[in-house]
Amino acid sequence: RNVNSTLTILSVIRVDDGVYWCNATNFLFVEFETMSPTTTLTVYYPPDVTSFPVSLQRNAAEYADFSCTVTGLPIPIVQWSRTPSSQILSQELGKFDISTQIDDSSLTGPHSVTTRLIVLNLTITDQETYTCSGLNP
Predict the structure, then answer these.
(1) N or C: which end of the chain has fewer CB within 10 A?
(2) What is the pTM of this model?
(3) pLDDT tens digits for range 48-80
(4) Burial (0-12, 13-18, 19+ Cβ within 10 Å), 122
(5) Which of 26, 50, 28, 24 is nearest to 37 (CA)?
């Protein structure tokens, strides 16, 4: 006789991430594994900023160097912005040097992305609040 069974996980959370398998026992209490012994559940979740940039004071014509770390699954996209101008910062603007280092050494996550923002040749217009944020791809 064939018996089907289903595993349902309601309200999935991060700790549900992992490998699941099905074992069955026949009427002789002999345990055996199914033809597909395992399945993997990967739980994605929003990025979390785990290391924040610190406030700085610099002179005109110098540079400011900020860094932050964002953790998430999948590997998060890190974005720098500044307010009150609400400007999303990028390398193309020529005023900013942005570098990123991804720690994806864990096969299943979470993954950390550390990013560094250097604001070059400071002027009075660069006196704003710089914010690091993470996005899921």
Answers:
(1) N
(2) 0.76
(3) 999 998 999 999 999 999 999 999 999 999 999
(4) middle
(5) 24
